[in-house]
Amino acid sequence: MTQSSAITVTEHLWIPLPDGRRLAARMWMPEGKGPFPVILEYLPYRKRDGTAPRDATTHPVFAAEGYACLRVDIAGSGDSDGRFDDEYSEQELSDGEAVLEWIAAQPWSSGNVGMIGISWGGFNGLQMAYRRPEALKAVVSVASTVDRYADDIHYMGGCLLSDNKNWASQMFAYMTRPLDPKLRPDWREEWLGRINDLPFMAADWLKHPTRDAFWKHGSVCEDWSEIKAPVLAITGWADAYVNAPSALAAKMTGAPAKALMGPWEHRYAHISQIEAADFHGEVLRWFDHYLKGEDAGAEALPDYRVFLQEFTEPSPKNLPQNGRWVAEAHWPSPNVSDVTWPLARAGFAAAPQAGTVVVKSAATVGQAGGYFCPGIRIDNERPGDQSVDDAASTCFDSTPLLAPMEVLGRPRVRLAFSVDKPVAQVVARLCDVAPSGQSQRIAYRPRNLCHDDSHEVAAKLEPGKRYEVEFELNECAHRVLAGHRLRLALSTSYWPIVWPAPEAAEITLHLEDCALVLPERRVEVEIDAQAPGAARDYPRYQAQVLEKPWGEATTKIEADGTHVLESYDSYGAARDLSHGQQVSSNVRMRYAIHPDDPASARFDCAWVFAFGRETDGDAPDWNLRIETDSAMWCDTETFTLWREIKAFEGEDLILTRDWKAVIPRGCH
Asked: Cis omega before residue 178 (within 30°)?
């Protein structure tokens, strides 16, 4: 336990579960006798080391404002008991209910608990609210989803994302990390047991290619009225998870919901590399209102506060973006209405046009798309200039705009089409094209043309038959300047974000029933945007930096024409000054595909984690290394997934194991 001038930090405590298992937690306690309202963050990323640098920047600030804060590791992660079984599993969520009940019963707790989290923690905050535990009174959910099939890291528009395997590779590395001998005398037995029992997540997820009961579990969109806790939903435009805030603001009926969209990547806003903002102030206003009962102004916030972006020279770097903050008092807003632009051979037309246009792309279209979720790597992960991908796509351009146009919401694409292959996908990108010719991606989304609108039913297409489809792109907020053009780019591939269809398909568009539908915003008088302020001062993680983080990405074309994207990220090395544990990690990724052969797609990933601690009289020397390798490849009929782990104690290899799965492609 450590003491500061205002808060007391308990580095480790046990939370008992009804079946005798225990979850590991860290706690920050305010000054005074209490009882206090409580802020809970609940996820599997290891409070001892994994999220410790981020936790140091948030929970001490909240504790200093009168909140007891807990960071709890889910079962089978960190130093918690049990085995990990899957993301957002029934075990995870029922354990979470038990944690909330335990918190509410503690003498230092007022019984009012709020949940906070980004990504995983943001997901399970919503999912816990859906289950309506008595103690949960409010949620701040950052970079989350309301639909696990439509808007997570596995599928998008019914298309398989390559990050289904990439994320599983990362979780494979994360969940095979050891327990801390200082806290768990049985660490070695438990560590090796976890490795042997770890589910093959990429294969499990791939076995559910449509929106079935597996994905409906934990998807709060199944019944919006079930959420009774007020929700503040936050995301950044550079993030992958852009659709949940506006959906929650529009559709939650059982409690207030407010949406906040900034220019940020997949990080809490106060530590954004793009433009840091006062994340702490937003959280405290919400919880002060709903956990303390203070009139903090949360209910009076506009439904949707948004950073309306403008053209910024495209760069993979996390650089500041042009734009301004605006707000909509109500969402959906009467200030936003649909504008339909029929597609024509020459771009867009005032009325539907007859004729056909063909969409057929090389498998390498998408090289300028960046990584699926910027904020996970060190940098160099955002979409760059789309003009190269545009040149290899079928594009529909507007004439240069005579006046600025604001787009706020989810654009839609309406297509009538026929295909020459039984499995096909289309990827739509909405781009802002500057007079210079540079093309900035505003929004995108793929669509598996074999799926019905529910994504619950998939059937192979009949070549030559005419079909119709309408689908939304991802949420966006963009002001197109006068003199710029809007471009709809269509392609049959978007690698490496989207795993390609088994064969190169040719899509014939029947233009008379094809259109782009834009949610245009027109406002005569703006209301106060109540934009987040500048980031306030906050404490930093107390660690000795042994190696600074760094990363790089390179592309090349091999002798046979295969296009290769390789990246390396070292997350550095550091020694925690409170408990002496030393951790380092790095990851290599490789994406490869031949432009003429979608079935040549391959992904490889290798993680290395190293752990150590010098003798300090309380624990012996500790020197471990974990090497995980993962790969995915395919042919026209099957996907093949493979993974391997090697665990070292000192220089001794103490465990090695590999797994392999072959899964039919079906309609993917």
From this structure: no
Give me the amino acid identity at 11.
E
User: How, if at all, do strands 155-156 and 109-118 pair?
Assistant: unpaired
Given 3.40.640.10, 2.60.120.260, 2.60.40.2340, 3.40.50.10860, which CATH number is that of 336-521? 2.60.120.260
Q: Is the peptide bond before 35 cis (omega within 30 degrees of 0)?
A: yes
Where does residue 13 rank: exposed (0-12), middle (13-18), buried (19+ CB within 10 A)?
A: middle
Give me the amino acid identity at 229.
Answer: A
* Token couple for 190: 């438990």
Residue 436's alpha-carbon distances to 109, 397, 482, in angstroms, are 59, 15, 13
Question: Would you say the CATH fold of 336-521 matches that of 2-148+221-302?
Answer: no
> pTM of the entire structure?
0.97
Taking residues 260-288, report their average pLDDT.
Answer: 98
The dihedral sign for the CA sequence 251, 333, 257, 281: positive
Interstrand relation of 405-409 and 515-521 (parallel, antiparallel or unpaired): antiparallel
> What one-letter code names the amino acid at 362?
A
* Span 153-169, pLDDT tens digits: 999 999 999 999 999 99
CATH T-level assignment (fold) for domain 2-148+221-302: Rossmann fold (3.40.50)
**Nearest by Cα to 111 from 39, 37, 30, 40:** 37
Asked if residues 584 and 568 have their Cβ atoms less than 8 Å apart, the reply is no
Mean pLDDT computed over every residue of the chain: 96
In this structure, what are the phi and psi dihedrals at residue 522, rounded to the nearest 5 degrees? Answer: -130, 120
Locate the domains of the chain by residue range. 2-148+221-302, 336-521, 543-664
Residue 221 CB coordination number (10 Å): 19
DSSP one-letter code for 657: E
Helix, strand, or coil (residue 128): helix
Per-residue confidence band for 186, with pLDDT thresholds at 50, 70 and 90: very high
Per-residue pLDDT, 3:
46
Task: Quote the CA–CA distance of 498 and 366 in Å, as a whole number.
Answer: 9
Contacts of 358 (CB under 8 A, 6+ apart): 394, 506, 507, 508, 509
- Dist CA 549 CA 378 (whole Å): 7
What angle, 0 to 180 degrees and rounded to 10, lies between the N-to-C axes of helices 90-105 and 120-131? 70
- Report the 10 Å Cβ neighbour count for 585: 21
Q: Quick check: 249 and 328 in contact, CB under 8 A?
A: no
